[in-house]
Amino acid sequence: MLPSDGTLLRIFIGERDKHEKQPLYEWIVTQARAHGLAGATVLRGLMGFGANTRVIHTFKIERLSEDLPMIVELVDTDDKLEDFLSFVEQHIHSGMLATMEKIQVRLYRGNSSSQPDSPAR
């Protein structure tokens, strides 16, 4: 059960960022699941720039970027996300921006079946 007062952690990275040859966004999501966080979503940006480059990366037909911005959003309690962010910081030393904000969880329903990966009905 997730309390109504939750926290949203956003981690901003680049599409090319890796952790031990695995895309960094994949590593973050698999680690979030292993740490028992309530949920994670990866969003691919259409345009952006970051601290490591002042070049604007964009998704346009005439100039397709291969390093678009990525946002990993994670939702859980403040304590669990603080612990998770500390874990991530121990493994990722550059190319990342993280923000946290208080949220109000209005609805959080898990699958009612006993198998966590079965489709919802």
Notable characteristics:
single chain; 121 residues; alpha+beta; Alpha-Beta Plaits; four-stranded antiparallel sheet; three-stranded antiparallel sheet; 2 helices; 41% strand
Provide a concise account of the structure shown.
The protein is of the alpha+beta class.
List the total number of helices: 2
What's the domain count? 1
CATH class category label = Alpha Beta
- Biggest beta-sheet profile: 4 strands, antiparallel
Spatial ordering of strands, largest sheet: 4-8-1-9
Going by CATH, the architecture would be 2-Layer Sandwich
CATH topology: Alpha-Beta Plaits
Question: Which segments are poorly predicted (pLDDT under 50) over 5 or more consecutive residues?
Answer: 114-121
**Beta-sheet strand percentage?**
35-45%
| Strand segment count | 9
Topology of this structure?
Elements: E1 5-14, E2 18-19, E3 22-23, H1 24-34, E4 39-44, E5 47-50, E6 53-60, E7 63-64, E8 69-76, H2 78-91, E9 97-104
Antiparallel strand pairs: 1-8, 1-9, 2-3, 4-8, 5-6, 6-7
Q: What does this 3D model show about the protein?
A:
Helices cover 21% and strands 41% of the residues. The protein is of the alpha+beta class. It has a single domain, classed as Alpha-Beta Plaits (2-Layer Sandwich), CATH 3.30.70.120. Strand 6 and strand 7 form a beta hairpin.
